[in-house]
Design goal:
Elements lengths: L1 H6 L3 E2 L28 E11 L10 E7 L2 E4 L10 E9 L5 E8 L4 E9 L17 E2 L9 E10 L10 E2 L15 E4 L3 E12 L11 E8 L2 E4 L3 E2 L4 E11 L5 E8 L8 E9 L4 E3 L8 E4 L1 E2 L11 E9 L28 E11 L13 E7 L2 E4 L10 E10 L5 E8 L12 E9 L8 E12 L2 E16 L4 H4 L10 H4 L4 H20 L7 H7 L13 H15 L1 H13 L2 H23 L20 H7 L10 H36 L7 H19 L2 H4 L1 H8 L11 H7 L9
Parallel strand pairs: 5-10, 19-22
Antiparallel strand pairs: 1-29, 2-5, 2-9, 3-4, 3-6, 6-7, 8-9, 11-25, 12-16, 12-22, 13-14, 13-15, 13-17, 17-18, 18-21, 20-22, 23-26, 23-30, 24-25, 24-27, 27-28, 29-30
Membrane topology: Multi-pass membrane protein
Protein name: C2 domain
GO cellular component, one term: membrane
């Protein structure tokens, strides 16, 4: 049991980081790559082949081959420009050989034109950014009578070099046309916005059959999504229905609205009229408010007598830019900012992460020796993808990325994938290996966390370890003073979510649509971040967190640990009660009065009538026949229809999902309270705030008379103007940001 616990635990590592205390920074004092280990490469920038004007080479198709040790790279798969230019940078691990060999060949005859060797120890310079790139030159070749020179530049560098993202690495030399799918990239997903189409009512509608009262419903289409209202009857129907869509910037789409007359279920539905409205023409709501209800003329289909009648729709058309469109599950959310930039909170800090490497990776194909792995990191709308290390179970990336952080109560998600697009694109989907999630409210500022995180994957066979991912994480505060220390008490979501809240069903429905839009947007990049990768990164959390553990044991152990960790709390409480004994008397007096009134008045109050069968409670007023059949079915089931069994199984899963979510939420609240009392938070400020609030409450409780305290519920019941605030208070916002153990895999 201990081995399993150690296997799934996070281990500290000691890499040679550039930002380590007491260590020399190999990248210089101004470098941003201080969370990764230095990797030295030999870069060869092949520019072009130049003809010798004194010699006629005849017909020739030049190809450059570069060899270092057992690694060979070539330009044979690269397109040749009009001036015989390639402009391609090749990268080699400098420890793989002592001599660099550059050969110029003829593709047609496969004969050697020119060749030159370079000793790594003495003939190749070292470049240290931010120095400019070394100028290419004509290197002396052995044979210059063939009519060609080779223009190139060679130097030693690291991953800090600006050619690193576009270099062709020697481990991927067999990758030909799909080499672009192995390069590191940073993606910025367009921000998302809600589009609200409120269908209020219709006026002067005419049915396709003038002798019949129209039964009309309205459909609205944006992109591939179509929503509709209920059917309403009459020439002036009323709906008051909100149809909410998701759109991405720059908000250039068009909403197509149609009025459809439904005759009956057996007849074809006919279009009464239609309307097109661009998103740029709608009312932009940048504060929590509602768009004005306006009348819009509907383009009516021509009648049989060639007359047209101008029907109208009363609608509210707006782009709700004050909302945050959730694309992730709330437990894994990395951003809470609204669409409009003017409502963003102040910049809180800087998140930096160094992706060092991985060990012991396991792929889905056991016959394959190595894995072509890369890592995708997602925070906010910025996605970072490392280069693909080909055919290795212990890859080394040593790439560093940074994000602007506006909220500490967020989660950084990293996923590692097996690249299946390096030899033939779209041949197969990239296979997810596992994910690692880091909760930022557990990360202290100005501290480097160098750890090896287990890559966990939950499947039908249980929790499986797919390897370990080595990371270096650092968070640095940028905001100071009031902006920093008031951040835990501000609203977590934008104000519009509290003034005009959306239902959980609407949020989940819009979240699924937001994921589809992000998949489509990131698939149009070069190289594309594939749909299966985006879908896996944004996948919601599982609901099996506490399904196999005993909640009573967890609560008992947590309380026992808290009691042992806080022995001084009991001592200070006893001293406080001794110094202020009137608090004990007031408490006992209040408890005596409460119990006396509770049990004494119970004898005098009349009893309620005994309810034998509450049909409404048991939902027997309109019973579901299938549920009754399932209730009286034998065990094992005698139903032979597979579809009925599948439907019942899905219904049981949906019913059991709700108490599991409730248990998970209750456990999260307990973990927040536990973190508050054990100094487990950001810079231990949470517990300090708790102690300060408790002291202030104790002083107020002791010094303010009881009759004055009783005025507050009366004032709250009368709802005076200063108390009319439906926004969450600062204490609630502070408690919501406390860390939990919810983020596991």
């Amino acid at each position: 049991m201990a081995a399993n616990k150690d296997e799934f635990s996070v281990k500290q590592i000691s890499p040679k980081l550039g930002g380590e205390r007491g260590a020399r920074n190999p990248y210089g004092p101004t470098s941003l790559h201080d969370l990764v280990e230095q990797m030295e490469f030999l870069y060869v920038d092949v520019i072009r082949a130049i003809k010798n004007s004194d010699v006629d080479p005849g017909p020739c198709d030049p190809v450059v081959e570069i060899t270092l040790g057992n690694y060979k790279s070539s330009t044979k798969d690269l397109p040749v420009g009009p001036n015989m230019d390639w402009n391609q940078v090749f990268a080699f691990d400098k420890t793989k050989g002592d001599v660099l060999s550059v050969t110029l060949k003829d593709r047609l005859t496969n004969t050697v034109i020119n060749k030159s060797n370079f000793k790594l120890a003495s003939e190749i310079p070292t470049r240290a950014p931010p120095d400019a790139r070394i100028a290419p030159q004509r290197y002396p070749l052995r044979n210059t009578k063939t009519g060609f020179y080779l223009m190139m530049s060679v130097w030693f560098g690291t991953q800090v070099d600006e050619v690193y993202p576009v270099a062709w690495f020697s481990d991927a030399s067999e990758v030909s046309t799909c080499v672009i799918n192995t390069r590191p990239k940073v993606y910025l997903a367009p921000r998302l916005c809600y589009v609200r189409v409120t269908i209020v009512s219709g006026h002067d509608l005419i049915s396709t059959d003038r002798n019949r009262t129209p039964s009309v419903y309205v459909t609205a289409t944006l992109g591939q999504v179509t929503l509709k209202t209920e059917v309403s009857f009459g020439t002036n129907p009323s709906w008051n229905k909100d149809l909410i869509f998701v759109a991405s910037e720059p908000l250039e789409g068009t909403v197509y609205i149609r009025l459809i007359d439904r005759v009956d279920d057996q007849h074809e539905e006919r279009i009464i009229g239609k309307l097109e409205k661009k998103l740029s023409e709608m009312t932009p709501l940048k504060v929590p408010s509602s768009a004005p209800a306006l009348f819009y003329d509907i383009e009516v289909e021509p009648a049989g007598d060639s007359r047209r009648f101008a029907s109208r729709l009363k609608m509210k058309l707006a782009t709700d830019q004050a909302y945050h469109v959730a694309e992730e599950s709330i437990q894994y959310s990395s951003d809470y900012r609204p669409f409009v930039k003017g409502l963003w909170p102040c910049l809180l800090g800087k998140l930096e992460i160094g992706i060092l490497g991985a060990t012991g990776l396991k792929g889905s194909d056991e016959r394959k020796q190595g894995i072509d792995s890369y890592v995708v990191a997602k925070y906010g709308n910025k996605w970072a993808r490392t280069r693909t290390v080909v055919n290795s179970v212990t890859p080394k990336w040593n790439e560093q990325y940074s994000w602007d952080d506006y909220e500490k109560c967020t989660v950084l998600t990293l996923g590692i994938y097996d690249n299946r697009q390096i030899f033939k694109e779209d041949q197969a989907n990239d296979v997810p290996i596992g994910k690692v999630r880091i909760s930022l409210n557990r990360v202290e500022s100005d501290w480097i966390y160098a750890c090896s995180y287990p890559i966990l994957k939950l499947g039908s066979s249980g929790l499986k370890k797919m390897g370990e991912l080595q990371l270096a994480v650092r968070f640095v505060y940028v905001a100071q003073g009031y902006a920093r220390y008031s951040a835990p008490f501000r609203w977590l979501l934008p104000k519009a979510h509290y003034k005009s809240p959306l239902s959980v069903y609407q949020i989940e429905e819009m979240r699924a649509e937001a994921v589809k839009i992000n998949c489509a947007n990131l698939a149009r990049t070069e190289p594309a971040l594939r749909n299966e990768v985006v879908w896996d990164m944004l996948k919601p959390k599982t609901n099996t967190r506490y399904s196999t553990c005993d909640m009573r044991k967890v609560a008992a152990l947590a309380f026992f640990d808290l009691f042992l960790y806080w022995p001084s709390l009991i001592v200070w409480l006893a001293i406080y009660l001794v110094v202020v004994p009137c608090i004990v008397l007031v408490g006992l007096s209040g408890l005596h009065k409460f119990l006396t009134r509770k049990f004494w008045n119970k004898r005098e109050n009349p009893r309620s009538p005994l309810i034998v069968n509450d049909l409404k409670l048991w939902k027997l007023e309109s019973p579901n026949l299938d549920e009754l059949e399932e209730e009286f079915d034998s065990f094992p089931s005698s139903v032979s229809d597979v579809n009925i069994l599948r439907m019942r199984y899905d219904r049981i899963r949906m019913v059991c999902q709700r108490p599991m979510i409730l248990l998970g939420d209750a456990a999260s609240q307990g973990e927040r309270l536990y973190a508050l009392l054990t100094f487990n938070g950001d810079d231990q400020l949470a517990s300090f705030y708790c102690w300060l609030i408790c002291v202030l409450v104790a002083l107020c409780w002791y010094n303010i008379p009881m009759w004055l305290w009783s005025l507050y519920p009366i004032a709250y019941w009368l709802n005076f103007t200063p108390l009319r605030n439906d926004m969450p208070c600062g204490v609630s916002n502070f408690f919501r940001r406390l860390p939990t153990n919810e983020v596991l895999f």
